[in-house]
């Protein structure tokens, strides 16, 4: 066939089964066009199929071919007619934005633009977390027609990843007949298409239980439903919350800043650090560094400030770079606060609020953004804690929190087991707490020495504590289903060891009233199985036959010398021509 292959003739392979032999049909279009043409062509085919038949088509493109899965018989010529040079771009635009390919390119573009932030400075973010943040960002910006990163993602797909001009050219040739095609029907994918089976099975193996739809997994996530639905939302253990806050605030051993630059960046990220938490941070740094943290703090003491607010219960450490925004957000009157650098130099009110953008910004918007960002380093907290720490009056704070809850940036209610009914928490942090709670609930097993194995098996098989009735016999058979043993052993050793005063009539009753069957094996051995397991037993029988053939083949090696001369390689197969020799 290789000598007959032509560049202007393409093969359409109709496979009469789905991936791994499941029911269904597959159409494999062997294009050999490359991924820059196959991927957009596959997306256009999917969009056209959905427009015509109102159902989503499963597509798997690669560099050499495109695999399409259908629930029933299809006509390949009708599939090829769905996409033309005129409508390919229109169809591609309909399907591209909702594809995983577009999401991956958006994640890369957002990462280059530093829109996907890290949880901690100098901390590597796992790929799954990057994907999650990218999905949330994409969901929020899809409503904007001119969002720069969205436009860059479209440009990356249409110009860098796809070759639409060449795709239109080959589609014109396909319509005109310059590119011809032929059909081959197979029961299983050919070697040229079998490589795609791994991609198909891998997709279904890790797919969740939600039905396929246009909505992303993020929108239908059960975890998100659990976070924002008070009726089904679980509460968190206080110990889990404490562990989370220790790590999130870098107060756990090994998490503290290690350099002056790291410290300044961390204070910026925290927005406001209550002085009690600042002292804890200094203690942790001292333990991690095995020395006083003065060598790290002094070089940046002029870049960090301390706000002493008249209505806050303790001073707050902030970055001087963000000081104007913080004071504007808190709405502080100059007589209500005192500002100084960390080294003790007083900062006058004339040095605050020089930024024109800060002066023009709306105070409520700044306060909402400040509280939302500040709570990202905490678990569930009470409204009173927020009010007393930041020095915000209750009426103003209630209005801001209500807006954040409506925007689903925060959640409120009883969030800690045995806690208050009016706590608030960052929604992403509560998702992390749910995961930590689930991981903590996984039981931890300690492996035992092998000397306990015999006792465990005896107890598990019912030998240590024999049953006394027919139900116990049925449970014993369930454990031993498909196990071959001699017919005599079943009723003289196996069943009597598990059933006190075993009665052979019990076995007859089980087989007559249920679907229990027995099957014979070699050397007068018998196995019990249920009718639904007979197919498995047939496969075992086939394996047994193969083993018998191997044993017979091995016996050839023990045959007389003249047989060994005739069959020098006992592992090979001999055709008729070889036997004639």
Describe what is shown at a glance.
The protein is of the alpha+beta class and 581 residues long. The chain has 26 helices and 14 strands. The protein is 48% helix and 12% strand.
Report the sheet-strand fraction.
Answer: 5-15%
From the N-terminal CA to the C-terminal CA, the straight-line distance is 31 Å
What's the overall geometry?
flat
Domain count? 3
Radius of gyration: 35 Å
The count of strands amounts to 14
Helix content: 40-55%
Q: What kind of sheet is the major sheet? A: 5 strands, mixed
Mean pLDDT: 81
**Class based on secondary structure composition and strand pairing:** alpha+beta
Number of helices: 26
Widest sheet, order of strands = 3-4-2-1-5
**Regions with pLDDT < 50 over 5+ consecutive residues?**
1-7, 209-220, 540-557
Question: What would you note in describing this structure?
Answer:
It is a single chain. By secondary structure, this protein is an alpha+beta fold. The chain folds into 3 domains: 2-205, no CATH class; 239-441, no CATH class; 453-564, no CATH class. Helices cover 48% and strands 12% of the residues. The chain is built from 26 helices and 14 strands. Helix 4 crosses helix 6 (148-161), helix 14 (323-330) packs across helix 16 (363-374) and helix 16 crosses helix 18. Residues 1-7, 209-220 and 540-557 have low confidence and may be disordered.
């Amino acid at each position: 066939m290789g000598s007959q292959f032509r560049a202007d003739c393409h093969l359409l392979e109709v496979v009469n089964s789905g991936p791994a032999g499941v029911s269904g049909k597959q159409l494999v279009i062997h294009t050999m066009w490359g991924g820059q043409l196959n991927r957009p062509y596959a997306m256009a085919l999917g969009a056209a199929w959905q427009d015509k038949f109102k159902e989503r088509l499963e597509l798997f493109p690669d560099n050499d071919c495109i695999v399409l899965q259908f629930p029933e018989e299809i006509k390949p010529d009708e599939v090829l007619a769905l996409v033309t040079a005129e409508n390919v771009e229109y169809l591609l635009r309909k399907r591209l934005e909702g594809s995983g390919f577009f999401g991956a390119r958006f994640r890369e573009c957002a990462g280059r633009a530093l829109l996907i932030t890290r949880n901690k400075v100098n901390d590597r973010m796992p790929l799954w977390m990057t994907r999650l943040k990218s999905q949330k960002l994409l969901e929020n910006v899809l409503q904007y027609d001119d969002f720069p990163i969205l436009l860059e993602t479209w440009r990356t797909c249409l110009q860098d990843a796809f070759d639409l001009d060449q795709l239109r050219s080959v589609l014109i040739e396909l319509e005109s007949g310059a590119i011809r095609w032929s059909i081959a029907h197979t029961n299983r994918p050919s070697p040229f298409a079998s490589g795609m089976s791994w991609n198909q099975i891998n997709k279904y193996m890790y797919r969740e239980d939600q039905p396929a739809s246009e909505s992303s997994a993020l929108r239908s996530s059960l975890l998100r439903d659990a976070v924002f639905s008070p009726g089904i939302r679980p509460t968190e253990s206080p110990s889990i919350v404490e562990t989370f806050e220790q790590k999130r605030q870098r107060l756990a051993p090994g998490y503290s800043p290690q350099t002056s630059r790291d410290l300044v960046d961390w204070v910026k990220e925290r927005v406001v650090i209550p002085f009690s938490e600042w002292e804890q941070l200094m203690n942790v740094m001292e333990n991690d560094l095995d020395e006083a943290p003065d060598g790290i703090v002094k070089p940046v003491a002029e870049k960090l400030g301390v706000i002493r607010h008249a209505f806050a219960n303790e001073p707050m450490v902030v970055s001087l770079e963000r000081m104007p925004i913080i004071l504007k957000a808190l709405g502080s009157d100059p007589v209500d606060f005192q500002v100084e650098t960390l080294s003790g130099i007083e900062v006058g009110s004339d040095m605050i609020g020089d930024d024109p953008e800060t002066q023009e910004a709306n105070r409520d918007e700044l306060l909402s953004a400040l509280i939302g960002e500040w709570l990202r380093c905490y678990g569930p907290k009470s409204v009173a804690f927020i009010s007393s720490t930041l020095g915000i009056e209750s009426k103003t704070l209630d209005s801001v929190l209500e807006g954040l809850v409506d925007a689903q940036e925060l959640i409120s209610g009883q969030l800690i087991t045995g806690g208050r009914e009016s706590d608030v928490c960052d929604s992403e942090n509560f998702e992390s707490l749910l995961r930590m709670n689930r991981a903590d609930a996984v039981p931890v097993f300690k492996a035992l020495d092998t000397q306990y194995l015999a006792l465990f098996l005896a107890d598990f098989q019912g030998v240590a504590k024999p049953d006394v009735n027919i139900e116990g016999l049925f449970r014993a058979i369930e454990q031993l289903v498909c196990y071959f043993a001699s017919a005599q052993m079943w009723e003289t050793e196996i069943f009597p060891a598990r059933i006190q005063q075993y009665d052979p009539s019990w076995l007859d009753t089980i087989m007559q009233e249920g679907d229990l069957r027995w099957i014979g094996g070699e050397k007068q051995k018998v196995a019990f199985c249920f009718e639904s397991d007979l197919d498995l037993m047939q496969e075992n029988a086939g394996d047994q036959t193969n083993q018998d053939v191997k044993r017979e083949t091995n016996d050839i090696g023990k045959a007389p010398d003249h047989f060994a001369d005739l069959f020098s390689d006992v592992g090979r197969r001999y055709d008729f021509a070889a036997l004639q020799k």
